[in-house]
């Protein structure tokens, strides 16, 4: 497989265009279906060698056509195969021709009675499904899931919207999914990702140039996307050459979040990190900081004085900050500087988000917003409430409006830039959902900005490293553990 196809994500509409472009270029579409069906059959034999019976559920479209090919190949291999169709495919279509070459028993989908020992090959609907499943199909899906029968899905588990990852009434809970050429959003966005089981991407022979021409700047977040932007340490490097990150602290009873963020920034490669503390919290911070420096900042005049020093190269504001009025005032001072805004820093602008967006309009993108869904809805209520939008659509729309890189957090974090580029992160383990982990993420991204990485790459690298540190730390981690498992940038090149 072409290396770029390993990271490309295409929507169902784009995949339909790719299929058409392949056919228009002279590629035999029947041959593509044959390869796809054979790949499904091979996965079934490899994954379920002890199956008592393979039950193929076939829809009337090309997904069903892949199922007919798989059924034929499995029968030729000596397996017990039964096929149940939702509706017959059109006779002259590729699926119709594939069905004509299958000589086993074919029953109506409503006649199938799930039985223990069956392995279900779901070839009903592919990634292009965009409407709720019919009630009879929903009922069958629920019965199969309830018996915990192993399901191998063709392209995407039936019932999962390939564009949004959402379940459309009901969806198969597959243990294995075989898709073709590249991933679709539904394979990566929740809950679709959890319904796919183990995902296998098979190259059926469409040239990479056709796939690349149809893709629109959507990728999986992997080091290959941003590694060229990572700073390289020279032999003559000194601490200021690695950037100076400043993290704003909250009051005396809310200092821990800023220290977590600052310590993460130091571990993530910033040459110097300073906690900017209100005077009343100075003693609490001083008692816990060693390599991270401390400076007291009490209001806008003091911040303006600090900003006269150009060596402060990036800022993090929000974790545990608390004072929303002061947050807005500080952001106004920082409008020309690279800034990660999280937590209370985002909430501070919920009543007038346009003030934040206008402050960072124009010039190079220098603002990174890291909201979870609740914080996102405070800044972008209309975008958040639009049920027609996928998580990718929401992040992209917000990035354009805010002139910022959006890190829309979750198990399926999406990173989006104002120019339309977007990444879906897939390396975050479930145990990363722990108190303080977002503070750590802000510090990592801040460290990257301090080292002069572009905002989109800084955010993408930060999200990936955050997930990788959690994977290495293992279940039961705390935010402090997460910081300890952050390693030098060189390991991720």
TrEMBL record:
Positions with a binding annotation for (6S)-NADPHX: 62-66, 126-132, 155, 257, 320, 372, 439
Binding of K(+), residues: 63, 122, 158
Swiss-Prot/TrEMBL cofactor(s): K(+); Mg(2+)
E.C. number: 4.2.1.136, 5.1.99.6
Pfam families referenced in this protein's UniProt entry, alphabetically: Carb_kinase, YjeF_N
Binding locations of AMP: 409-413, 438
Catalytic activity: (6S)-NADPHX + ADP = AMP + phosphate + NADPH + H(+); (6R)-NADHX = (6S)-NADHX; (6S)-NADHX + ADP = AMP + phosphate + NADH + H(+); (6R)-NADPHX = (6S)-NADPHX
Domain of life, per lineage: Bacteria
Cofactor note: Binds 1 potassium ion per subunit.
GO molecular function, one term: metal ion binding
Domain YjeF N-terminal: start-end pairs: 15-212
Family under the similarity heading: Belongs to the NnrD/CARKD family.
PANTHER family: ATP-DEPENDENT (S)-NAD(P)H-HYDRATE DEHYDRATASE, ATP-DEPENDENT (S)-NAD(P)H-HYDRATE DEHYDRATASE FAMILY MEMBER
Quaternary data: Homotetramer.
Name recorded for this polypeptide: Bifunctional NAD(P)H-hydrate repair enzyme
């Amino acid at each position: 497989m072409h290396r770029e196809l390993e990271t490309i994500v295409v929507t169902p509409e784009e995949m339909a265009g790719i299929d058409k472009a392949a056919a228009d270029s002279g590629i035999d579409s029947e041959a593509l279906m044959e390869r796809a069906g054979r790949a499904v059959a091979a996965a079934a034999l490899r994954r379920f060698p002890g199956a008592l019976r393979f039950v193929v559920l076939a829809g009337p479209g090309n997904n069903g056509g892949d199922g007919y090919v798989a059924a034929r190949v499995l029968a030729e291999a000596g397996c017990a195969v039964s096929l149940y169709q939702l509706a017959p495919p059109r006779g002259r279509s590729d699926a119709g021709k594939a069905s004509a070459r299958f000589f086993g028993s074919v029953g109506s989908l409503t006649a199938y009675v799930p039985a223990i020992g069956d392995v279900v090959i779901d070839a009903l609907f592919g990634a292009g499904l965009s409407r709720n499943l019919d009630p009879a199909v929903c009922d069958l899906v629920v019965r199969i899931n309830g018996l915990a029968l192993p399901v191998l899905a063709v392209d995407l588990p039936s019932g999962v919207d390939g564009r949004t990852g959402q379940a459309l009434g009901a969806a198969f809970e597959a243990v294995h999914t075989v898709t073709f050429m590249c991933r679709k959003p539904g394979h990566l966005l929740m809950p679709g990702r959890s319904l796919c089981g183990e995902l296998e991407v098979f190259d059926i022979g469409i040239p990479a140039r056709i796939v690349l021409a149809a893709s629109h700047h959507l990728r999986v977040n992997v080091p290959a996307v941003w590694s060229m932007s990572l700073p390289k340490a020279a032999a003559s490097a000194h601490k200021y050459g690695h950037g100076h990150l400043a993290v704003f602290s909250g009051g005396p009873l809310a200092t821990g979040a800023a220290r977590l963020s600052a310590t993460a920034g130091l571990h993530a490669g910033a040459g110097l990190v300073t906690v900017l503390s209100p005077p009343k919290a100075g003693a609490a911070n001083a008692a816990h900081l060693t390599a991270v420096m401390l400076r007291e900042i009490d209001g806008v005049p003091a911040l303006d004085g600090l900003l006269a020093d150009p060596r402060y190269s990036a800022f993090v504001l929000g974790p545990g900050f608390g004072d929303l009025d002061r947050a807005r005032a500080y952001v106004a001072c920082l409008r020309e500087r690279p800034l990660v805004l999280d937590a209370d820093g985002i909430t501070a602008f919920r009543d007038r988000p346009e003030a934040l967006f206008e402050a960072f309009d124009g010039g190079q993108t220098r603002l990174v917003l890291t909201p979870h869904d609740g914080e996102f809805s405070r800044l972008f209520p209309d975008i958040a409430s639009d049920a027609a939008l996928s998580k990718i659509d929401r992040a992209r729309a917000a990035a354009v409006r805010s002139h910022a890189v959006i890190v829309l957090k979750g198990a399926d974090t999406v990173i989006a830039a104002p120019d339309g580029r977007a990444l879906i992160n897939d390396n975050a383990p479930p145990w990363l959902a722990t108190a303080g982990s977002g503070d750590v993420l802000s510090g990592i991204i801040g460290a990257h900005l301090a080292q002069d990485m572009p905002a989109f790459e800084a955010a993408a690298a930060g999200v990936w490293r955050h997930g990788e540190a959690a994977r290495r730390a293992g279940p039961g981690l705390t935010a402090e553990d997460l910081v300890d498992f952050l390693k030098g940038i060189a390991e991720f090149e």
